[in-house]
Amino acid sequence: MKQFFKQVFASTIGFIFGAIFLFFIFFFIILGIANSLEEKKADVAESTILYFRPESDMVEQGSDNPFDQLDINNLDLKQKEMGLNKTLEALYAASGDKNIAGMYLHLPNTFSNGFAVLEELRAALQNFKDSGKFIVAYSEFYSEAGYYLASTADKIVLNEAGEMLFNGLHAELMFLKGALDKVGVEMQVVKYGKYKSAVEPFIATSMSDENRLQVKRYLESILGSYLKQVGKNKAMSPERLREISDKLLIRQASDAKTLGLVDALGHEQDVFAYIREMLKLEADAKYESLSLSAYYPSRPFTTDFEAGKIALVYAEGEINDGESGMPGKRIVEALREIRKNDDIKAVVMRINSPGGSALESDVIYHEMKLTAEKKPLIISMGNVAASGGYYMAVAGDYIFAHPATITGSIGVFGLIPNMQKMFNEKLGITFDGVATGEYSDLGTVSRPLSGAEREVIQGMINRTYESFVNKVAKGRKMSFGAVDSIAQGRVWTGEDALKNGLVDQLGGIKDALAYAAKEVEMEKYRVVEFPKQKNPFEAFMGTKEEVKADLLKEELGDLYPLLQLHKDIQKMKGVQMRLPFTWTIN
After folding, report:
1. Residue 40: is it exposed, middle or buried by C-beta count within 10 angstroms (0-12/13-18/19+)?
2. pLDDT score of 89
3. What does the H/E/C string look like for 393-428?
4. pLDDT at 567
5. Of the residues 95, 194, 206, 351, which has the fewest C-beta atoms closer than 10 A?
6. How much is the pLDDT for 2?
7. Among 211, 122, 35, 92, which residue's Cα sits nearest to residue 579?
8. pLDDT tens digits for range 457-507
9. 48-166+250-298: what CATH class?
């Protein structure tokens, strides 16, 4: 028996040591793979041409996860997404790099982004051009988004068999009430604010007059900004561009050239010929070219480690208490770390969020106020900073927005389905139960809300709305009545928000950082980004979910956002402060 226990003990010890040994082998393999996938510096030769093919649906903060390059589906490597932060950093660095002579701006056939992202990219491209370098743009299909960037170029080339979509902006909403009626589902809505149109698709078959008014207003505002910027580069009046757009005067490639929106019809070989011409090279001469993603790790390193730090916090996505979107926990942890770090002198918070959970919005707001008590807190709005996103923004000392930022939407709603008819009449399912109190089953989907229950929920909504308006009034130094008159769930563009006092200045990330530096009297500063990125091992362990998402994106295409919306709705808890739509420019 003694011998038996000895053998068991020895086997157990051997198993433990073997497991530890295998773990370390696995760990070092992961580190080795991560190291091989890390961005490597490339030699930037004299007169190098930068190749820039912008990403669609660009995120604010690019991932540092080296495993993002692995295409598990095809067992291959793929182009790593840079994100807006790295893209801008590379573009601005290239503007001052004497070895970069010009840029080939290659616009994808399917290219879409939020308008604030387009404005950031366009400003960086214009800065590149103003530095004395040339840009040549090419596409087989110019969308409105793609052409907005291409209009900064010295020469715009459209494939001779290609197309250009220049027909204005369009918003279309899907209404589900008819389908819900057919299956016997009634959506019970409790809201505050006549403009809170997030619930309209569930209770109506068409847009309300109030919603139609606000959608028309922000579309016109964004289009006006678009035409003004394009007109500057093409020496055309916004009125003439509007006429071309409204009458759909561009119906084939030759129309775009005749009307002066593109400079040439041709192929990529014509782009290469133009580059050689600008570099004063022979017809068949080779020239050095480097993609923007390859240039990023090779850009001139100008960081002054003696300079003070400014924290740049990215608050992007749906506000929730989970791990996807904008998890409140990660933002809270980042803000607490910043408050403890005396080397960080100021904070810029980049908000790109349609809102979400009212509770999590308030948790983040509270942490932002604590941070603002210790350090200047400057807000930079991205594509959208509305509802819960704007709730967070008013904690800041000063707010920047892009002209086309979607903001406001100061309103609150609750949505509870009543599935009694579907269960009882369509499926033959009935429910019965026992409750300890009058409100114990509040929120059940098996019956309609009682009058008393609706009053309880309406009270919650009203209190949340009043708290929201009070916070805006305090942060923006306005009266409750003044805020209420521009609230009611109404959506505004950044341009209009400046006029009615919801933001302080129009500008992008660089403007917000410069303002923060001025507030703490720093001539030189270095930016520290938050939330912190995962280390290689954590990144690898999280790769499974990212691969799954990539596969779904590839299969579903334009339908993928609908899947995400479905998942977001499933995760919604409690009162919501959320923008009623998503918005991109194609």
Report:
1. exposed
2. 94
3. HCCCCEEEECCCCEEECCCEEEEEEECHHHHHHHCC
4. 60
5. 206
6. 58
7. 211
8. 999 999 989 999 999 999 999 999 999 999 988 899 999 999 999 999 999
9. alpha beta
Distance CA 455, CA 470 (A): 22
**Which of 143, 293, 357, 387 is the catalytic position?**
387
CA distances from 302 to 46, 420, 532 (A): 19, 65, 22
308-431+442-578 has the same fold as 48-166+250-298: yes
Please say if 380 is a catalytic residue.
Answer: no
* Residues whose CB falls within 8 Å of the CB of residue 483, separated by 6 or more in sequence, listed in order: 410, 469, 472, 473, 476
What stretches in the chain show pLDDT beneath 50? 30-31, 33-37, 70-72, 74-78, 537-541, 543
For residues 54 and 65, give the distance between their C-alpha atoms in angstroms, rounded to a whole number: 20
Distance between CA atoms of 186 and 197, rounded to whole angstroms? 17
Please calculate the CA angle 510-515-517 and round it to the nearest 5 degrees.
95
User: What is the structure's pLDDT at 174?
Assistant: 87
Residue 281 near residue 289 (C-beta atoms within 8 A): no
Set 155, 196, 234, 375: catalytic member: 196
Environment class of residue 249 by beta-carbon count within 10 Å: exposed (0-12), middle (13-18) or buried (19+)? middle
The whole-angstrom separation of Cα 240 and Cα 247 is: 11
How do the domains of the chain map onto residue ranges?
48-166+250-298, 308-431+442-578
- Whether omega for the bond prior to residue 201 falls within 30 degrees of 0, making it cis, is no
Which SS3 state, helix, strand or coil, does residue 357 take?
strand
Active site (annotated) includes residue 196: yes
Average pLDDT in the chain? 85
Query: How many CB atoms lie under 10 A from the CB of residue 363?
Result: 18
The reply to whether CATH 3.10.490.10 applies to domain 308-431+442-578 is no
The pTM of the full predicted model, rounded to 2 decimals, is 0.82
Q: Which pLDDT belongs to residue 36? A: 47
In residues, how long is the chain? 586
Residue 386 contacts residue 407 (beta carbons within 8 Å):
yes
100-106 and 48-52: which strand pairing? parallel
